[in-house]
C-alpha cells in the first residue's frame, strides 16, 4: 500500500492558500479571515513541517486498515493536532477565525484532483466507513450546522498516538475496561483450548465463556490483551466506536460483559442488537445462569469451572512465596483474579508486621478482603470473637459442629483430590439447621465456626425477608444470594420458622405459594457454594420433608445445671471484682436460664455493682439481675428463692444463715 505523508498535506494546503490569496478581489481588506491576512497565511504555509510524524501516521493507517484516500483524509484532519499553524490556515481557508478544525467540505477541496472529486472525498466520512466506524473521526456541531460544514475532530486516543503518547491513556473518562494478560496462569486448560478452537473457526454465532475469570480465560485463548465493553453499551455508537478504535490500534479483540445485569425485559433488545452486528460477538459471563440472557439465541457456550483446589493452592504459593497454602485455598473458593488481589493484601499485611512471607492469618485476611460481596447492604455482619472453649453445649453437639467445620475446611481435598465428586452426587455447599430455644448458643456456634475457619458470617432475618406479596420473597432471596456470590461467607438465616413451617397440607393459594417459596430457598441454598445455616426456636414447626434435604440438623438443648454453672463461670470475667458471697451452684440449680439470659444477668449485675459503693459483684446484684431477666421473659421466680436472700436483697447484708 502506498504511504501518505504530511508533506503531501503541506503542498495541498499551500496550493489552496495561494489560490485563495491570488483570487482575493480585495487583498487589502483588513477583515479577511478576521485577522489572518493573505500575507500571514502564505507565510504560515512555509512553517515547520510535521514530517517527523509520518512514521506514526503510517503505522496508524496500517493498524486501522485504511486505504490511500482514507489515509489522506485522516492526515488532513489530524494535522491540527500536530501543529497549531494548520488550525490558523484552515480558519483562513474557511474565512472564519473560529473554525480551526477542518470540515468535510474543506477536506474535499484540499484533496480533489487527480481523478478525485469533492464528492469522492465526502464518501470517506460515511458512518459505515472505517474512519467513522472505528471512531477515528467524529463530526461535531449541532443540527443547525450544515452537514458538510461541521467540524471534524480526531479521536483523542488516536491524536495521542500520532503525538507519540501512550495509546492506553485516553484524556477523557472511558466506559471501556482493558483486560491485560493474566498475572498468573488462570488454569482451566480444557476450557481455554475449547474456546481457542471456537475462535479459530469462522462463524456468525455468538460465543459465550461462562465461569469465574471468564475475561482472563478468553484473553489466554486469544493469546492477546482484550478490551471489554458492557453489553448495555452495544447500542451506544460512541462507546462502540471507541472500542473499535482501541481494538484496531492496540490489537485487542473486543469482548462483552455484564450479561448478569440484563433484566428479562431488556433481553429482546439485546438480542436484536447482536443480530445486526457485522462482527462476531464474544461474551464473558460469570455463571451459566447469566448466559441465560441469550436463551432465545443459539450460542456457542463454553463452561469454565472454578479454579480447582490444586490450581488455587499453587497460585497462592506462587504469588505469596508461602509453602503452606492448602488451608486458605480450601476454605476460600476464590477466582484466580481474586487470588491475585488477595495475595497482594497478604504480602502487604506481612510486610507491615516486618515478616518476609505471609502467615496463615495474613492469607485469611487477604482472602476475606478479596471476596467480593455486597452482603453488608442486606445482612448484618457478625463479629467472629468466640472460640470453641467459649461454647457450652453437650459433647454430641460440639462434635457435629466440628464436623461441619472439618467439611468446610477439607471439602475440596476430599471431593476433588480424592475423587468423591465423581462418585457422590451432591453439591459442594452445606445446608445446616440449628434448632433450639432462644439463647441456647445457636448464633454463638455459628460465630465459633466462622472464627476457626477465618470466614466472615452474615446474619439474615428471614422474618423480614418473607413478604406477604406474591413473588416478593423470591426477589428478596435472590438479592441476598446474588450479593453473597463470591463472598465465601457463612450465611446465617435467623427466624427460619417464618418460612419453613409445616405446610404439607395445602389449605389455600397462600399456603401453596409458601411451598414455592420454600422450594426456591432450597434451590438457592443448594446452589450456594458455602455454608448456609438456618436457625429456628421451634424444631417441631419445621416440615420433615424439608429437614430431609439438609446436610446437618443440630438440636441445641436447654442447658442443664452443670452447663449453666460453666456458663456462669465464663460470663463472669476474671478481671471483674467478685464478692465472697457469690454462689454459682445456687444460681445454676435454682434458676433455669439459657446461656444468653445468663450473659444478660452477668452484665446487668456488673452495672449494678459498678453503681454501688461496694465496687464488687455480689449475690444481691446477681439475684436482682435474675429477677429482672425473669420479668423480661414473663416468668416469676419462686418465693422461696428470694426468701433465702431476703436479708441480702432488702437489707444489703452478708450471706444468709440459712445457707
From TrEMBL:
Residues 428-560 form the AAA+ ATPase domain. Keywords: ATP-binding, Nucleotide-binding. One of its GO terms (molecular function) is ATP hydrolysis activity. It comes from the Bacteria. Belongs to the AAA ATPase family. This is ATP-binding protein. The lineage of its organism: Bacteria, Bacillati, Actinomycetota, Thermoleophilia, Solirubrobacterales.
Amino acid at each position: 500500500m502506498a504511504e501518505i505523508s504530511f508533506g503531501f498535506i503541506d503542498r495541498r494546503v499551500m496550493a489552496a492558500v495561494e489560490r485563495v490569496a491570488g483570487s482575493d478581489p480585495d487583498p487589502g481588506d483588513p477583515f479577511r479571515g478576521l485577522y489572518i491576512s493573505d500575507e500571514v497565511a502564505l507565510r504560515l504555509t512555509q512553517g515547520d513541517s510535521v514530517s517527523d510524524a509520518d512514521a506514526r501516521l503510517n503505522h496508524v493507517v496500517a493498524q486501522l486498515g485504511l486505504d490511500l484516500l482514507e489515509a489522506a483524509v485522516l492526515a488532513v484532519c489530524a494535522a491540527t493536532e500536530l501543529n497549531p499553524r494548520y488550525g490558523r490556515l484552515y480558519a483562513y481557508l474557511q474565512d472564519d477565525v473560529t473554525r480551526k478544525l477542518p470540515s468535510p467540505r474543506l477536506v474535499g477541496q484540499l484533496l480533489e484532483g487527480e481523478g478525485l472529486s469533492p464528492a469522492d472525498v465526502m464518501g470517506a466520512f460515511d458512518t459505515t466507513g472505517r474512519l467513522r466506524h472505528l471512531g477515528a473521526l467524529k463530526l461535531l456541531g449541532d443540527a443547525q450546522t450544515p452537514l458538510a460544514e461541521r467540524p471534524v475532530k480526531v479521536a483523542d486516543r488516536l491524536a495521542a498516538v500520532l503525538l507519540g503518547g501512550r495509546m492506553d491513556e485516553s484524556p477523557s473518562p472511558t466506559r471501556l475496561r482493558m483486560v491485560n494478560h493474566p498475572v498468573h496462569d488462570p488454569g482451566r486448560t480444557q476450557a481455554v483450548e475449547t474456546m481457542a478452537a471456537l475462535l479459530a473457526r469462522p462463524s456468525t454465532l455468538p460465543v459465550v465463556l461462562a465461569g469465574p475469570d471468564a475475561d482472563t480465560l478468553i484473553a489466554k485463548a486469544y493469546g492477546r490483551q482484550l478490551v471489554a465493553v458492557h453489553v448495555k453499551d452495544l447500542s451506544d455508537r460512541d462507546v462502540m466506536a471507541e472500542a473499535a478504535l482501541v481494538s484496531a490500534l492496540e490489537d485487542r479483540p473486543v469482548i462483552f460483559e455484564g450479561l448478569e445485569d440484563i433484566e428479562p425485559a431488556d433481553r429482546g433488545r439485546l438480542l436484536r442488537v447482536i443480530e445486526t452486528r457485522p462482527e462476531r460477538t464474544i461474551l464473558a459471563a460469570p455463571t451459566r445462569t447469566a448466559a441465560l440472557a441469550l436463551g432465545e439465541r443459539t450460542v456457542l457456550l463454553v463452561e469454565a469451572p472454578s479454579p480447582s483446589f490444586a490450581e488455587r493452592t499453587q497460585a497462592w504459593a506462587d504469588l505469596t512465596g508461602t509453602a503452606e497454602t492448602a488451608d486458605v485455598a480450601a476454605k476460600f473458593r476464590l477466582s484466580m483474579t481474586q487470588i491475585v488481589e488477595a495475595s497482594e493484601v497478604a504480602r502487604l499485611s506481612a510486610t507491615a508486621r516486618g515478616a518476609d512471607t505471609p502467615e496463615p492469618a495474613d492469607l485469611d485476611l487477604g482472602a476475606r478482603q478479596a471476596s467480593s460481596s455486597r452482603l453488608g447492604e442486606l445482612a448484618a455482619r457478625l463479629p467472629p470473637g468466640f472460640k470453641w472453649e467459649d461454647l457450652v453445649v453437650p459433647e454430641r453437639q460440639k462434635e457435629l459442629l466440628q464436623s461441619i467445620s472439618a467439611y468446610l475446611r477439607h471439602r475440596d481435598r476430599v471431593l476433588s483430590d480424592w475423587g468423591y465428586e465423581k462418585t457422590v452426587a451432591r453439591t459442594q455447599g452445606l445446608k445446616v439447621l440449628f434448632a433450639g430455644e432462644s439463647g441456647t448458643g445457636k448464633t454463638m456456634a455459628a460465630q465459633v465456626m466462622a472464627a476457626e475457619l477465618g470466614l466472615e458470617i452474615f446474619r439474615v432475618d428471614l422474618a423480614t425477608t418473607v413478604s406477604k406479596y406474591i413473588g416478593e420473597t423470591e426477589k428478596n432471596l435472590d438479592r441476598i444470594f446474588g450479593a453473597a456470590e463470591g463472598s465465601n461467607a457463612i450465611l446465617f438465616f435467623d427466624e427460619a420458622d417464618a418460612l419453613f413451617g409445616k405446610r404439607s397440607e395445602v389449605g389455600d393459594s397462600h399456603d401453596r405459594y409458601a411451598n414455592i417459596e420454600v422450594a426456591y430457598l432450597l434451590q438457592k441454598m443448594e446452589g450456594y457454594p458455602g455454608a448456609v445455616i438456618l436457625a429456628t426456636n421451634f424444631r417441631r414447626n419445621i416440615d420433615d420433608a424439608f429437614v430431609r434435604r439438609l446436610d446437618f440438623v443440630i438440636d441445641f438443648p436447654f442447658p442443664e445445671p452443670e452447663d449453666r454453672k460453666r456458663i456462669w463461670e465464663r460470663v463472669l470475667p476474671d478481671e471483674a471484682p467478685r464478692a465472697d458471697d457469690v454462689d454459682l451452684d445456687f444460681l445454676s440449680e435454682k434458676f433455669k436460664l439459657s446461656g444468653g439470659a445468663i450473659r444478660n444477668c452477668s452484665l446487668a449485675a456488673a452495672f449494678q455493682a459498678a453503681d454501688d459503693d461496694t465496687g464488687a459483684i455480689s449475690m444481691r446484684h446477681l439475684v436482682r439481675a435474675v429477677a429482672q431477666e425473669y420479668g423480661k421473659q414473663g416468668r416469676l421466680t419462686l418465693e422461696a428463692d428470694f426468701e433465702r436472700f431476703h436479708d441480702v436483697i432488702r437489707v444489703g447484708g452478708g450471706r444468709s444463715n440459712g445457707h
